[in-house]
């Protein structure tokens, strides 16, 4: 069946067997009679109804960091074209294989340790220095390689994730010459070939392979360790700092939710006890205050934690953004850069600003306005419908019609807008991945904010119906989270399983009933030679599938964006309206305890491994949440003003005075928020000292190292004067 | 008459003569008959009534950077004690002299070029690198001295101001040993001796000498060049970057005032034309909007300009604050620092926070509350008085009694509070001069804000009397500026002149009438040998006074603090209430055009030269002004809401609706302000590129320099891969 350029080289190991068991425990679905009916209609459905270990044995792929796959029906010539260019123009080591089942090609890419080290220097990869050379992270240089921790063992000096990131850099640096084209796609001189081909579908996928032993450790110590703290250092090392920061943030946020959950439960509990209205009102106001203060302190404390982590993971100092490498899809003209003096893609900032302010923002604003209009129309329709169906005497199920229409429309608009936003952001042509992401966040967060909260604002401030607000909030909070988890975990998981089953079916045929009844797992070890020939066991085949094949069937991880967005909206529900629905924080807490592990599961088992990315902090999400905090103050004050407590606490007050009182309250709260934020330093004192220490040491080392270079004067360059008393004169 | 350790060494030069002429033109007061009467009573008064050149000839002091003076009646032993310690424990060159007239001692301190260069390195003085070594500013090191611009001529490598700052560092680094004491003052081990003695009056003054030739250039090209742009680079070089930034800011602010002045004049002009009330109201609202927008754009544009200047003057990168030298008066225990590993004064951050939050802030708040209470009482008294004097039929002059009382009380409270604030700030014990200043700014700006604006707020929002507001604002704005200029320039100027006259009288006796009638200026040159013997000219003495003597009679410049404070309050008048008094910006503009030159005159002719200080920007004043901008939005909106335009524009609106409308307007304006601030980058694009270029060059140079040090691998370390296409494969 195999006819590729190389044969797949499956290998068996204790690891594989352990992974099989893991797979069984995690995924096994025991469906029986209903399944049998289905199986007769869809041949490969049998796979999904039996234990995965029966129809698939994972064989680790060796000597490969990154896999590049081509779409079906790609010609051998095209593959050869890529192979040739990679070999000629890069330091990469590449092997090509053809997949037997669907006739697709894959490139297995890796690089030698010396090339990787060279690229670590070119990319200014920060590595930890030995303490005697100043400590802290510093850009790796080959000349000073021995100053870095762990360089004694060159092969394990770079982590698996760093290797893959460097290989990615090398791949992205494969650039087109003048007039080149492949598979009908014309390339512009200087363009990064593979990213361009990926965006046009000439290349199907590019992903780094999992490190199965480390993945297993993460599975036991992270995904399934509900009660334990997350092993964040391992996560950051394995998936990159950006994902590490996401999980650290999610954990920090979840812990921070404990306090408002408790307060919320107490407040909610009080509503069952008979109390005077005045007491109730006072509690309402206090709870709103508490929300505002909590959100401020939480946001500030995260900044401190984030600085700690960035320091620990070596991303606190990032180099000047004009020196950093541009995004692969950044468009520009090749010009001699005034910064580096070399040929570089450049794009004038004013043209970006023209696009941003004359196209980007107006279009975004128009989309949001459109969204608001549609939301308003649908809400009006909903109320009209409710009133008229009562008049017409229709059954209650018809009530759901406008709600379904609304849910459908919202989903549709979200998808359409997302495409528009990505296109606009691409059009604005940001040079760096980071600024690209940050601007995309602003665009999408704004839209999602309107989409998620418009109906609540409508109910709270237009209808002024607090009861309805409570119901709507509870429903939205719970439904969104359930739907979110299904959308982000279950569906991709099932899709991936389906694809694997198809692959197994195509390669080895249907699962036989005998296999299903007598699963003799781990009875006979797989042959060490790694052939794909049928096993000796009667009636069963060694359904060996290589790791690369399995992972290429998995969907691609889209980044932390959707996860942050979900949490951002949740944070909004908690701080905007929780005085109406005090259990919001508790619901969020419950959800997040599961969310942490389900997101971890997603990364470890459902999606392809993502390339590691560096990040100093959570970027624009911090700003977005701070804006949400301010909106929280305004909304809470407005709720206090509207829902009557002021009026009941001070019965003689006029409406104007109420409004003025609420305004004063709002301004005082905003001032308080500002003062709290100002009083809490963004970097903890110990970390400041630590950073200063590293900087000081580095200067000392630098001074010492310079004294070898030139010698102008023999002045003692290690000053002893810093505050120490001079020798006594007596 | 001379009996000091050295004799004064006066010298004559064309420069001196030119300075005499300058002095005459600037200061000469021609008083005649009334003066003669006065002269009979106060002997030295004669000096003040005649041209200064008659009773004083300035002789430049050579070979001296910094002068330290002792109070009268300091014993020779004390002076010897200081001399000995300076000679033993520092690299300074010191000479002592006794002043003949009042028997006071002075130390003339300087240092050799090699010691200064050594200290330039120890203090990490940033100097400009040669272009071939990366360009931009970098901390000076002796080893790489030849990489810096202008090092070929070692003696002129450091500017006069840099020399003096380094000498100051060396003086401040003269630290006490265990158990030392001088003139009854016990010193703590490790304490900076001279700053401590200065603060306790054991040492009277310490100031750097003027560079007379450069001073003259500044006089012609800056102080008296009203129509010309300020020579900011020269100012920053001569007085240090901190003062340079102040004048740059003042100039930028003054230019920025042109636009609101013009708009204000147009708006004010319209009030004379008969227009409908509706049109008037619309203009009122538009003018308030304009104010808000202008202040935002102005504040943002200053940030950009500030970044440019800091880059040009080498203060953009300041080293980590925990590495910087502490303030001389910083108190702490000598401990091995965890940052530098050396003995350093340390003070735990939590103790500072305890002092700040448990003592500093509550006391500040109490002072401000007390101030508000006193202001309110006085205002109430004033109105009560006005009503009752009408009833009693007293003359109109009695109306002024409470106003005088108020002015007097305000002045008194300002002075008392200033002492409290300085004491509190000292008590909070900030480690760095910069943070000390910033916290002092916050304390004083808050208080001054209340002191300056309380009466206006009272009139605008409590009395709601717009006519009275206009009058009060105009009066305050003009009186404050006139009084301010008298207080800050005229009084110190007269005091200095008086002191000089006393000195001349004590040294040479009264001015004889013959001299007064026949001033033969510059007729005979002063003797070159520098003796103070009577001149050959009959009836006249060579009234030679050395530069050091003259400058020690001048008052000390207290720093830019008062100047900023004055401008901060002025900015407040302009943006808070100018919709009530549209000519506020124009008054401010007129004042500032003069203020620039009078501040320049102050620095060049009235006060002692200050030590140069470094600054990256205007520090907390920027924040203070941004807060003022936000307060401006609130106040302007409140004025719009209160003074009726909304009600007249929409006659059917209810009071509650008016308030709501104003609130929405306020929030919209604040949002707009935020968006404008966000859209204008704090660093201009060209400067970003420039900074990145320097950083890039430096890395390249660094990589090259490292390749001499060790040699692990011979990999090409000048990457050619940055976006440039790889060689074509064809």
What can you tell me about this protein's structure?
The structure is a homodimer of 730-residue chains. Chain A is an alpha+beta fold and 730 residues long. In chain A, 61% of the residues lie in helices and 6% in strands. In chain A, the strands form five sheets. A four-stranded antiparallel beta sheet of chain A has the order 3-4-2-9. In chain A, helix 13 packs parallel to helix 24 and helix 14 packs parallel to helix 16. The N terminus and C terminus of chain A are likely disordered. Chains A and B meet through helix 5, helix 6, strand 11, helix 24 and helix 25 of A and helix 5, helix 6, strand 11, helix 24 and helix 25 of B.
Number of helical runs of chain A? 25
Low-confidence stretches of chain A: 1-16, 18-35, 515-540, 708-730
| Percent range of helical residues of chain A | 55-70%
What's the shape of chain A?
globular
Largest sheet of chain A: 4 strands, antiparallel
Strand content of chain A: 5-15%
Assembly state here?
homodimer
**Strands of the biggest beta sheet of chain A: in what spatial order?**
3-4-2-9
User: What is the count of β-strands of chain A?
Assistant: 12
- Summed over residues and divided by their number, the pLDDT of chain A gives a mean of 80
Largest interface: A-B, 84 and 84 residues
């Amino acid at each position: 069946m195999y006819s590729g350029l190389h044969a797949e080289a499956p290998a068996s190991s204790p690891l594989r067997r352990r992974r099989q068991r893991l797979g069984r425990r995690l995924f096994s679905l025991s469906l029986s009679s209903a399944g049998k009916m289905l199986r007769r209609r869809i041949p490969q459905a049998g796979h999904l109804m039996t234990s995965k270990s029966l129809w698939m044995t994972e064989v680790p792929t060796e000597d490969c960091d990154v896999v590049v796959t081509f779409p079906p029906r790609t010609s051998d010539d095209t593959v050869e074209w890529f192979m040739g260019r990679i070999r000629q123009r890069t330091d990469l080591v590449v092997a090509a294989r053809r997949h037997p089942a669907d006739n697709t090609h894959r490139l297995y890419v890796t690089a030698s340790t010396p090339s990787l080290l060279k690229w670590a220097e070119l990319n200014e990869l920060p590595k930890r220095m030995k303490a005697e050379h100043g400590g802290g992270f510093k850009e790796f240089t080959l000349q000073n390689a021995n100053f870095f921790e762990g360089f004694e063992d060159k092969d394990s000096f770079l982590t698996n994730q760093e290797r893959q990131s460097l290989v990615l850099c090398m791949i992205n640096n494969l650039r087109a010459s003048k007039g080149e084209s492949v598979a009908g796609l014309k390339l512009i001189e200087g363009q990064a070939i593979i990213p361009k081909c990926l965006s046009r579908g000439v290349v199907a996928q590019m992903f780094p392979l999992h490190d199965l032993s480390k993945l297993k450790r993460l599975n036991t110590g992270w995904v399934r360790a509900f009660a334990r703290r997350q092993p964040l250092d391992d996560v950051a090392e394995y998936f990159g700092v950006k994902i590490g920061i996401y999980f650290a943030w999610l954990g920090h946020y979840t812990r921070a939710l404990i306090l408002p959950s408790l307060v919320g439960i107490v407040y909610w509990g009080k509503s069952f006890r008979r109390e005077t209205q005045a007491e109730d009102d006072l509690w309402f106001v206090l709870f709103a205050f508490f929300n505002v203060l909590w959100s401020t302190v939480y946001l500030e404390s995260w900044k401190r934690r984030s600085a700690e982590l960035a320091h620990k993971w070596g991303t606190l100092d990032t180099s000047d953004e004009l020196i950093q490498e541009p995004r692969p899809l950044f468009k520009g003209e090749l010009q001699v850069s005034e910064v580096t003096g070399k040929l570089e893609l450049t794009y004038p900032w004013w043209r970006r600003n023209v696009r941003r302010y004359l196209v980007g923002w107006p279009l975004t604003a128009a989309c949001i306005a459109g969204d608001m209009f549609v939301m308003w129309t649908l809400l009006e329709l909903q109320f009209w419908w409710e009133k008229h169906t009562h008049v017409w005497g229709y059954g209650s199920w018809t009530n759901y019609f406008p709600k379904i229409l609304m849910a459908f429309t919202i989903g549709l608009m979200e998808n359409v807008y997302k495409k528009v936003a990505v296109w606009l952001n691409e059009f604005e042509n940001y040079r760096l991945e980071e600024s690209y992401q940050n601007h995309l966040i602003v665009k999408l967060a704004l839209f999602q904010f309107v989409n998620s909260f418009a109906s609540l604002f409508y109910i709270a401030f237009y209808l002024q119906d607090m009861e309805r607000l409570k119901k709507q909030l509870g429903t939205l909070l719970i439904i969104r989270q359930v739907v979110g988890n299904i959308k982000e975990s279950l569906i991709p998981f099932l899709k991936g399983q389906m694809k694997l089953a198809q692959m197994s079916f195509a390669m080895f045929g249907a699962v036989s009933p005998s296999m299903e009844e007598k699963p003799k797992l781990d009875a006979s070890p797989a042959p060490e030679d790694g052939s794909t020939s049928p096993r000796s066991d009667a009636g069963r085949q060694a359904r060996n599938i290589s790791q690369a094949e399995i992972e290429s069937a998995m969907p691609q991880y889209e980044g932390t964006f959707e996860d942050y967005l979900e949490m951002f909206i949740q944070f909004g529900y908690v701080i905007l309206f929780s005085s109406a629905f005090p259990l919001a924080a508790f619901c969020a807490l419950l959800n997040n305890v599961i969310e942490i592990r389900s997101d971890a599961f997603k990364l470890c088992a459902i999606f392809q491994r993502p390339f590691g990315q560096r990040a100093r902090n959570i970027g624009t999400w911090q700003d977005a949440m701070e804006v949400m905090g301010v909106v929280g103050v305004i909304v809470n004050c407005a709720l206090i003003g509207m829902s009557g407590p002021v009026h009941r606490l001070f019965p003689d007050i006029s409406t104007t005075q109420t409004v003025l009182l609420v305004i004063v309250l709002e301004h005082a709260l905003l001032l308080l928020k500002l003062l709290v934020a100002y009083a809490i330093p963004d970097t903890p004192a110990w970390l400041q000292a630590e950073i200063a220490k590293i900087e000081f040491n580095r200067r000392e080392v630098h001074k010492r190292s310079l004294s070898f270079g030139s010698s102008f004067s023999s002045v003692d360059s290690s000053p002893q004067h810093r505050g120490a008393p001079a020798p006594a004169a007596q």
